[in-house]
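Troubleshooting log. The previous structure file for this entry was overwritten by mistake, so regenerating from the original sequence record. Sequence copied from the archived sheet and checked twice against the printout by T.R.
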Amino acid sequence: MNAFRGFMMIVITSIVGTQPLDKLLAQETVLQTHVVTVERIWNRAAHSAFTDIIRFEDDLYCTFREGSGHIPGRNGLIRVIRSHDGMNWESVALLDEKHVDLRDPKLSMTSDGRLMVNSGASFYHDTKRVGIESRVAFYDPKNDTFRKPQKVILPKEANIGFDWLWRITWHKGWAWGCVQQVPNTGDRALQLVRSRDGIHFEHVATLDVPFPSETTLRFLADDTMIAMIRRGGKEPYGWIGKANPPYNDWKFTRSNKAFGGPNFVQLPNGMWLAGSRGYGGKTATTALWWLDIETAKLTELLELPSGGDTSYPGFVIDQKNNRVLVSYYSSHEGKSAIYLATLRLDVLQKVDE
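Regenerated output below.
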């Protein structure tokens, strides 16, 4: 017995080092320290994916695509759900358009305080995509739903028939976004556009990014624009771009990670929290990282409970309740469903400990 006990102590010591075992077992994981809850909040469709979330007035609104599969499957619908407490959700709208696959909805609030959702609109012949447009719909408070989606009017520089305005970010009265141009043949392109009403856009600049894809824009207090750009091709590492007004002279830095459904948000202490698809393991996950916008380096924070078909996070910072809410989708529990993670804001901001 004593020999066996001695052998086990050697094995344990080789695994945990000289740290006392009882102290090691008492330590919380990063997931336990940072994440309060993770709840599946919607799974009524065969496939639910590509989320975003926003606080509008006193409620949370979450949006995502419902369909029969990731792509192409049955043409997608845009679902918008609402909750006052983050636990109990109700459907506000189910947006559809005949013969159109609505995809990747994103929520934002206009400069005059209206809630809007924008999305891609893909057209298929059998399984071949033959065109892409963009759509926008506005919340109608009188009828407590969203109006019918309408076509986004893009400038000629961003209008080749395969033009997808992926996410809109409002800043000082302007709606800003990047149109990814993804023709079936030929080179991709990325066009920076802006609008006063969220419907009619004008061209600002062509971004010199090889094989560009989904792009999220954010702004610093001095009006510097930051772009987190997904890329494909032979070198799929994402890029971080920076530009000062009038945003036609860009500096790009290659990141150390590949992106999928990229999003990022600035915490009150100035740190940038990023979320995207994580490709480092045996299966894809929804990963949260710290982003250094100067070096484009992403440092791993944690992986949310996820796997398989997953990612496309949305963020809401709730200082009043000391939390950061993260919407995302995942298929790790079977069919693809919508999840909401609640993180502790105070713990996230203790980056020096």
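Helices lie at 2-16, 21-26, 30-34, 345-348. Archived copy saved in two places this time.
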